């Protein structure tokens, strides 16, 4: 197992830090509209307490996206330098499987409110949901929680731009990059919403995702960094492939999170390529090469043939990703 995909431990800096901002091809059938078309003039906006960093990040993320047809939203924070960047951060997207991180956070938050630990069955379901992106486990937990409790968690977490999917279609939850960054921030810093045990449990699972699902935001991260990631992918008749990745990067002087959401991709590989271009730019600008090993490279071709897209109206039981993943 790569060194930086070791058991997650939140850095002392993160413990002290204040809470900050925070799949088969689709077929013709009724669909939920994708993100509203963003202006071609949309630009990356960054702020930072470190001289020159905001301008560099803005320039490098813009360059990484140059010439790409994917509609892309980005939100990131870096507590170490007081940095924040956003691009179309309030545009909404179908969540696909990235919502599974929110489902687990809701489960942990609800269990804490009930003054109980997760049952052995809940732990088994949560582990498969996060580390394998198992859809059946997610559907079971989603039904158990209900959209009412998911909505209550979202309110408590300040994720006010997120709307749970209706009729059991959790993969059609509408999300924004900004809210996903808020979730990452909640998971990596003490707060009144998620307990320390809850945060460490979820981050531990996000640190243990199977090897062929470690693509996306971890691309280019410095060796020695603890990586926590959750990805999502879904193809529908409109807006093509939705491909998303959220990642938190801690230890060895690191304390930052990246959320990248994309749609209008012709292939899953196209979406992955776009996300990884952004990630490499961010890691290069925020990384501390002297404190870690060589940058890590994700799998060139995710082997997720056993995975299924989240349930959607045109495929209520989901569909296998048989030979639809194309290399980028």
Describe the structure.
Residues 286-328 are annotated as: Disordered. The protein is an alpha+beta fold. The protein is 33% helix and 18% strand. The protein has eight helices and ten strands. The strands form three sheets. It has a six-stranded antiparallel β-sheet, sandwiched between helices. A two-stranded antiparallel ribbon has the order 4-5. A two-stranded antiparallel ribbon has the order 6-10. Helix 3 (100-113) runs antiparallel to helix 7 and helix 4 (120-131) crosses helix 5 (135-157). The longest helix has 23 residues, at 135-157. The model is unreliable at 6-39, 303-307 and 321-328 (pLDDT under 50).
List keywords for this structure.
328 residues, Beta-lactam_class-A, alpha+beta, Beta-lactam/transpept-like, signal, six-stranded antiparallel β-sheet, two-stranded antiparallel ribbon, globular, hydrolase activity, single chain, TAT_signal
């Amino acid at each position: 197992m790569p060194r930086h995909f070791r058991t997650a431990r939140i850095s002392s800096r993160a413990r002290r830090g204040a809470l900050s901002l925070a799949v088969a091809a689709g077929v013709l059938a009724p669909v939920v509209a994708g993100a509203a078309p963003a202006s071609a003039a949309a630009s990356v906006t960054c702020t930072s307490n470190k001289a020159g960093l905001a301008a560099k990040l803005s320039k490098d993320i813009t360059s990484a996206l140059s010439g790409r047809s994917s509609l892309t939203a980005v939100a990131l924070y870096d507590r170490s330098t007081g940095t924040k960047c956003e691009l179309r951060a309030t545009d909404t997207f179908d969540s696909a499987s990235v919502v599974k991180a929110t489902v687990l956070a809701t489960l942990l938050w609800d269990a804490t409110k009930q003054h109980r630990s997760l049952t052995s069955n809940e732990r088994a379901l949560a582990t498969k949901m996060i580390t394998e992106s198992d859809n059946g486990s997610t559907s079971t937990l989603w039904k158990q929680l209900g959209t009412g409790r998911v909505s209550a968690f979202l309110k408590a977490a300040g994720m006010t731009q997120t709307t749970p999917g209706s009729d059991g279609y959790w993969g059609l939850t509408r999300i924004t990059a900004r809210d996903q960054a808020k979730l990452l921030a909640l998971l990596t810093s003490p707060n009144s919403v998620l307990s320390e045990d809850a945060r460490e449990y979820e981050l531990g699972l996000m640190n243990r995702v199977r090897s062929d699902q470690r693509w996306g935001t971890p691309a280019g991260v410095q060796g020695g960094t603890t990586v926590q990631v959750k990805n999502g992918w879904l193809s529908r008749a409109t807006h093509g492939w939705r491909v998303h990745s959220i990642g938190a990067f801690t230890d060895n002087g690191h304390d930052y999170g990246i959320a990248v959401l994309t749609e209008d991709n012709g292939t899953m590989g196209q979406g992955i390529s776009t996300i990884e271009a952004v990630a490499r730019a961010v890691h290069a600008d925020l990384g501390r090469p002297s404190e870690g090993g060589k940058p890590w490279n994700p799998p060139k071709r995710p082997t997720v043939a056993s995975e299924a897209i989240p349930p959607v109206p045109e495929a209520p039981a989901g569909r296998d990703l048989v030979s639809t993943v194309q290399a980028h």
